[in-house]
Design brief:
Blueprint lengths: L6 H4 L3 H32 L5 H21 L15 H5 L2 H13 L10 H12 L2 H22 L7 H13 L1 H22 L1
Helix pairs in contact: 2-5, 2-6, 2-7, 3-6, 3-9, 6-7, 7-8
């Protein structure tokens, strides 16, 4: 996937690289917002928000994944353990492939997830019972996933192997795990305070 969006693939055509990167970020953000909107609609159709019980449920989900991130508890993530289709890279032009990869990654649960934070965000989207709120809650996930590629392409020699190594550092590093744990703990506390 990153082979489509690294500067080395585009050579001296920095404008083409920036365009592919922008399409990737747009696709990821749009897909995440659309998912959040659908989750909010599901919540609305099923009677959300549910007041204190909904907030307690959100606190429980966030706390469960906070323990996963901070202590390494074996809590499964509801995601497919698959990558995006590699054939898109050879079948579509680089800008179209970059957009498609963004759309696929932005959905979150359709590919590999490293952290449980998005599960709590998705739960909040359902429990909020509002498609616009759901879209607003989930869009930053897609934006972050899309921008991660730009972050991974840092440095003077951004070849696909280096980019993949940077993305793996981001997914497996201690700092991101601690940041996600802190965010989940904050969600747990805020939901508990609001729900009690």
């Amino acid at each position: 996937m990153v082979e489509t969006i690294t500067p080395v693939v585009h050579g001296e055509r920095r404008r083409v690289y920036r365009g592919a990167l922008a399409l990737h970020v747009l696709g990821a953000t749009t897909a995440a917002a659309a998912l959040g909107g659908m989750l909010g609609l599901i919540g609305a159709l099923t009677g959300a928000p549910w007041g204190a019980p909904g907030l307690i449920a959100l606190a429980a989900v966030a706390a469960l994944y906070a323990v996963r991130e901070s202590a390494g508890a074996p809590v499964p993530l509801p995601a497919r353990r698959r990558q995006v289709p590699s054939w898109w890279r050879s079948f579509f032009s680089p800008p179209v492939a970059a957009l498609l990869y963004g759309l696929a990654l932005g959905v979150g649960f359709g590919t590999y997830l490293s952290f449980g934070t998005f599960v709590a965000v998705a739960a909040a989207a359902v429990l909020g019972g509002d498609p616009l709120v759901g879209a607003a809650l989930c869009a930053p996930f897609g934006l972050g996933r899309g921008v991660a590629v730009a972050w991974a392409n840092r440095g003077p020699t951004c070849d696909p192997g280096t980019t993949v190594a940077h993305l793996e550092d981001l997914a497996l590093g201690r700092s991101p795990r601690l940041l996600n744990s802190a965010a989940l703990t904050a969600v747990t506390g805020a939901a508990l305070v609001s729900g009690l």
